[in-house]
Amino acid sequence: MGIPLPMTGGEPSTASELRTDTIDSELGPIVIVTDARALCALDFGGCEERMKELLTRRFEDVVLRHEANPLGVSEKVRAYLAGDLHSLDGIAVDPGGTEFQQGVWSALRKIPVGTTRTYGQLAARIGRPMASRAVGLANSLNPVAIVIPCHRVIGSNASLTGYAGGLPRKQWLLRHEGALL
């Protein structure tokens, strides 16, 4: 399983070369995409079209090459899923995005494991207290699920609201982290 982007067999290319791996998990397949320096995308099987769209917005021409455990990310995601909840903390990410999106995504990485924030709290945290809808939109465009933990953001009434990977996965991740009892 993987995302349907061009793969090459070694011919020269001016395309952005990205490395991809797919790991199995209780949440289904997880697709990991890195460049030579950082994690660029992480999403769930069944969300390949969304991942493809986000990657092609960012990289005009993309070539994916399979690589087992690119930059050690696959191993760290497996460790997280096995209970080492801080194994993702040191993963370098490069999600692209606008300055506003990058600010939201940076703030997401500061939400401690086992806790949640509302969209309004996150908007206030980035100095834009009236921008909770814009924060929600930035969350929905997060290309690096789990590592940029958009699953930790909930509705103002403490409800589990939208998650690109589906609400059952969001619920699983929050339970796994001890945020839902």
Descriptive overview:
By secondary structure, the protein is an alpha/beta fold. It is 31% helix and 15% strand. It contains six helices and six strands. The protein has helices spanning 48-58, 73-81, 99-108, 119-125, 132-140, 167-176; strands at 16-23, 30-34, 39-44, 62-66, 117-118, 153-154. The strands form two sheets. A four-stranded mixed β-sheet has the order 3-2-1-4, with helices on both faces. It has a two-stranded parallel sheet with strand order 5-6. A hairpin with a 4-residue loop joins strand 2 and strand 3 (39-44). Helix 4 (119-125) crosses helix 5. The termini are far apart.
Write a brief caption for the model.
The chain is of the alpha/beta class. 31% of the residues lie in helices and 15% in strands.
